[in-house]
Design a protein that fits this description.
Largest sheet: 8 strands, parallel
Keywords: Disulfide bond, Glycosidase, Hydrolase
Family: Belongs to the glycosyl hydrolase 27 family.
CATH architecture of the largest domain: Alpha-Beta Barrel
Number of helices: 14
InterPro entries: Aldolase_TIM, GH, Glyco_hydro_27
Number of domains: 2
Number of strands: 24
GO molecular function, one term: alpha-galactosidase activity
Shape: elongated
Oligomer: single chain
Helix content: 25-40%
EC number: 3.2.1.22
CATH superfamily of the largest domain: Aldolase class I
CATH topology of the largest domain: TIM Barrel
Strand content: 15-25%
Structural class: alpha/beta
Radius of gyration: 23 Å
């Protein structure tokens, strides 16, 4: 019989499944709710061939994979969801033909695993309204969908589901049966939506228990990612660590500079709380070819400038956020793929500690007495280099990582504001230090010292001065960043 002791042991093993922040691809930014099997596998195959060596190892099917009427720009009220006899969602075989004859996602998961990757699914909180209308039985119980549904806690933006009444014993059984099927298919990663805004702690705990039971039965770890994260509080951190591997800290993020800018303050709050196995998630990376059939915007390359893309990646890495890219990989530009293949992304997310914002100042062209002359914020992050949790030795033993961001609309020349000792510590200020740029320019697999191929000239930091008076020099581009490692020379 399954008991609480078994739950705890499985969960400890499961958290080892997220020793570093996950890196992967999610279909949402490209395909909304309309992804097909062919599109999924083309992204998986591309990832395995071009990006797996750099840490990218997970592909996730986002929302409404069980809706045969799903389209890019809306959710369909009263959609004829594909359900089994217990009300559990099944893949639409029109879009996922290998799911025919009750096979579900087993074939796709197997093919993804053969590529050396992990397979993930999106799921909504609760039980399908259609299952309640049909009053389908809850598997392995005497209850029905009507018995366990909670009609008072319904998602405000998606019409598919009712909540579950967690005071009813059949509610846990329904989640148990759903997750058991996912585990039988071979699912490695579950993105659970409508869990945190508002914060449904009882539902989160119930899903956590269902995953633990499925792991115990199938011997297969499943990582849990909670979404969305609007108004998410750091006071929940102990609860979140006890129930999930990832949790969102914002609403959906798109290819708008303001969306990226808002994450500075959120990651500044959450970065000091990042812990092996438990990751605050700043949301997907809207990079590359997005909007093919998405819910926001038309078919396009990411509207973020080249330097804004660097800022996005650097901030996520320094904040140790999971990295889930949204662009269609096979049709994204070589420059985008080269940016994702930067080994520093995995290096810093996996091998850094004490990640923190160390300075943030508003800069005025004419001084603080002239607020109308505000130019932007100069923001400095620092972290200690460390060995990875899986035992990989640090690329910068006893070194440091640093990032200098500039949010203004024009380039900003550093004028001695960033002292080296602020990044390496007062106790090590006199030691010899050398600087390595972590955004060496890469174009289609080849390094270029002059240009990144995207209309932005190279910006590199340097150390200037002597002894304890050394400072970081350089020009930070508009909405851009200088990102570097510091080693004791």
């Amino acid at each position: 019989m399954f008991d609480d002791e078994g739950v705890d042991m499985v969960l400890i093993n499961n958290f080892d499944n997220a020793l570093r922040p996950p890196m992967g691809w999610n279909s949402w930014d490209s395909y909304g709710s309309s992804l097909t099997e062919g599109e999924l596998m083309s992204n998986a195959e591309f990832m395995a061939a071009r990006l797996k060596a750099f840490g990218w190892d997970t592909v996730v099917v986002d929302i409404d994979w069980y809706d045969p009427t799903a389209a890019a720009h809306n959710y369909n009220v009263g959609a004829p969801l594909v359900l089994d006899e217990y009300g559990r969602q099944m893949p639409d075989t029109g879009r996922f033909p290998s799911a025919a004859d009750g096979h579900g996602f087993a074939s796709i998961a197997s093919r993804v695993h053969e590529l050396g990757l992990k397979f993930g699914l999106h799921m909504m909180r609760g039980i399908p309204k259609l299952a309640v209308e049909r009053n389908l039985p809850v598997k392995d119980t005497q209850y029905t969908a009507k018995d366990v549904a909670d009609l008072d806690h319904v998602c405000v933006w998606n019409p598919d589901n009712y909540g579950l009444n967690q005071s009813h014993p059949g509610a846990q059984a329904w989640y148990d049966a759903q997750v058991d099927q996912f585990a039988a298919w071979g699912v490695d990663f579950l993105k659970m939506d409508d869990m945190q805004t508002p914060f449904h702690d009882d539902e989160i705990e119930a899903y956590h228990r269902a995953i633990a039971k499925a792991e115990h039965v199938h011997g297969h770890p499943i990582s849990l990612s909670l979404s969305p994260g609007q108004w998410n509080n750091t006071t929940y951190v102990d609860f979140l660590r006890g129930n999930a591997q990832m949790w969102r800290i914002s609403d959906d993020l798109w290819d708008r500079w303001d969306d990226v800018y808002q994450q500075f303050s959120r990651l500044a709050r959450w970065a000091p709380l990042q812990q092996t196995g438990h990751w605050a998630d700043a949301d997907m990376l809207p990079l590359g070819h997005i909007g093919l059939r998405a819910h926001v915007g038309a078919d396009r390359d990411s509207r973020l400038t080249h330097d804004e893309r660097r800022t996005l990646l650097t901030l996520w890495a320094m904040g140790r956020s999971p990295l889930m890219v949204g662009g269609d990989l096979p049709t994204s530009t070589p420059e985008t793929i080269a940016m994702l293949a930067n080994p520093a992304l995995r290096e810093v997310t996996a091998g850094s500690t004490h990640n923190r914002e160390v300075a943030r100042e508003r800069i005025y062209a004419q001084g603080y007495d002239h607020p109308e002359s505000y130019r932007g914020d100069l923001i400095v992050w620092a972290a200690d280099a460390a060995d990875w949790a899986d035992g990989t030795v640090s690329a910068h033993p006893n070194g440091r990582y640093a990032a200098i961001f500039w949010t203004g609309d024009d380039d900003y020349e550093l004028e001695g504001h960033v002292e080296l000792k602020a990044l390496v510590g007062l106790d090590r200020a006199n030691e010899p230090w050398c600087l390595t740029d972590l955004f060496e320019d890469v174009k289609d697999g080849g390094r270029s010292s002059a240009s990144d191929g995207a209309g932005s000239s190279t910006h590199v930091a340097s150390i200037d001065g002597e002894g304890r008076d050394r400072v970081i020099r350089g020009v930070v581009p508009s909405h851009g960043v200088l990102w570097f490692a510091l080693d004791n020379a």
